[in-house]
Design goal:
about 475 residues; alpha/beta; Aldehyde Dehydrogenase, Chain A, domain 1; Aldehyde Dehydrogenase, Chain A, domain 2; 7-stranded mixed sheet; 16 helices; about 40% helix; oxidoreductase activity, acting on the aldehyde or oxo group of donors, NAD or NADP as acceptor; Aldehyde dehydrogenase family protein; oxidoreductase
Length: about 475
């Protein structure tokens, strides 16, 4: 078991070298991280390709054993990992944040290890028997985001390892240390070459997507970058799983109880201070309960402390980086100019630090307003009034994204009638953004393609093979 300082020393660049990493809550330098080159990437991929046949040959049972041992190592180092994550990403230790994320890494790793994947009998008619099996793809390139760097990294790593693939991980430059630390802990038990991290810039990421020895690319991030990855991967025909941008809509039906749903609405929108792909990002509320929902959300917001993530009392942190802070700030300023009614927040929380922006509820906005139409990826929620459910459904479906959506109602049957008409990979009822390791997850339209989690997620990290006889 390592403490924070020991773990940080293990993964940091030597003093005076590398790229400085700063705590977004304070601006203080945490450490420096080594910036690797395309040549380093090529060497890592070569090592992964060399290690892959032996890793696959171990079979499911031995890989499961080693994956569970890796989960044990994460648990043993969980507090040090959570502190590093909090310092680098900004999210608080408590609430659905840093400790939660490290725990999710353990949960997803163990779930991928435990999920059965048996051969499927597709024909058995007396004269022929055909079975569908899944073999390893080969070498997987995993390109992760900065918002949930450890957890989303594990969403990519765990099914890939289970299926017998080796993995080369390229984390975001904003949160490299967190992923370096997670992989270092796992590599205390995994064979050499099976799991490698490359910390580098966009050039390195582009090379990973286009490398001829990468058999599959998994990417979570913006739609624009996803499109570039598709182009980069074309020449080597790498398989792809892409979880891209979203602008999730929630529809509150007139029979909903504002007081009972307010807490779940809040966390659906503002988990990780709104920096979540499948967060609730635009809320359509029926006219009859519009003001009540606003007041209940305002009341919940007042109970949620924001500040430095190492303070055990806080559950909301800063924006992770200046670019995202500017996006949120600009969208809110534009909404105010368009007549948006600011219920809470509405301007930077400079008393807390340079990258803090308070929870901001903006009412009386309309479709077409940038805060409604553009993914804010931060703590600002537009609330839109509707009177006819057909209009709300049309509004929810009008954008070229479809990661998630939600319907809120006291009548689950009525909610389901609306849910089936929403164009999204997942539609939640009376909650938003809840994921489960056995529930397939993926987007439609410009929110990407491919499924993660559960049996379908394992299949996506394999290649089908029919054995007929």
């Amino acid at each position: 078991m390592s403490d924070y300082a020991t773990l940080l020393d293990t993964i940091s660049a030597p003093p005076g070298s590398g790229r400085e990493v700063r705590d977004p809550a304070t601006g203080e330098v945490i450490a420096s991280t080594v910036t690797m080159t395309v040549e380093d990437l090529d060497a890592a991929i070569a090592a992964a390709k060399n290690a892959q046949p032996a890793w696959e040959a171990l079979g499911h049972a031995k890989r499961i054993e080693l994956m569970n041992a890796a989960a044990d190592r994460i648990e043993a180092n969980s507090e040090a990992l959570a502190e590093l994550l909090s310092r680098e990403q900004g999210k608080p230790l408590n609430g659905p944040n840093a400790r939660f994320e490290v725990g999710a890494c353990v949960g997803w790793l163990r779930a991928a290890a435990a999920t059965p994947l048996e051969p499927e009998v597709v024909v058995d008619d007396g004269s022929m028997r055909a079975e569908l099996h899944y073999r390893a793809v080969g070498v997987v390139g995993a390109i992760g985001p900065w918002n949930w760097p450890m957890m989303i990294g594990m969403w990519q790593i765990s099914p890939a390892l289970r299926m017998g693939n080796t993995v080369v991980v390229k984390p975001s430059q904003y949160t490299t240390l967190s992923v370096l630390a997670l992989v270092a802990v796992m590599n205390e038990v995994l064979p050499a070459g099976v799991l490698t991290v490359i910390s580098g810039d966009r050039v390195v990421g582009s090379r990973l997507a286009s490398h001829p020895d990468i058999d599959k690319v998994m990417f979570t991030g913006s739609t624009a970058t996803g499109r570039e990855i598709i182009k980069s991967s074309a020449d080597n025909l790498a398989r792809l799983t892409l979880e891209l941008g979203g602008n999730d809509a929630g529809i509150v039906l007139p029979d909903a109880d504002p007081a009972s749903i307010a807490g779940d609405l809040f966390w659906g929108a503002f988990i990780n201070t709104g920096q979540t792909c499948a967060a609730l990002k635009r809320l359509y509320v029926h006219d009859s309960i519009y003001e009540q929902v606003i007041e209940e959300l305002k009341a919940v917001t007042a109970t949620m402390p924001m500040g430095n993530g190492l303070d055990e009392n806080n559950v909301l942190g800063p924006l992770q980086n200046k670019a995202q802070f500017d996006i949120v700030s600009d969208l809110v300023e534009d909404a105010k100019k368009r007549g948006g009614r600011v219920i809470t927040g509405g301007s930077p929380a400079t008393d807390l630090g340079p990258l803090f922006y308070p929870i901001t509820l903006v009412a009386d906005l309309h479709d077409g307003d940038p805060l409604v139409d553009e993914e804010q990826f931060g703590p600002a929620l537009p609330i839109i009034r509707y009177t006819e459910i057909e209009d709300a459904i049309a509004s929810a479906n009008r954008l070229d994204v479809g990661l998630g959506a939600s319907v809120w109602s006291s009548d689950v049957d009525e909610a389901r009638k609306v849910a089936v008409r929403l164009q999204a990979g997942t539609v939640w009822i009376n909650k938003h953004g809840t994921v489960h390791p056995m529930m397939p997850f993926g987007g439609v339209k410009s929110s990407g393609y491919g499924l993660e989690f559960g049996v379908e997620g394992l299949k996506a990290l394999g290649v089908p093979q029919v054995i007929s006889g």
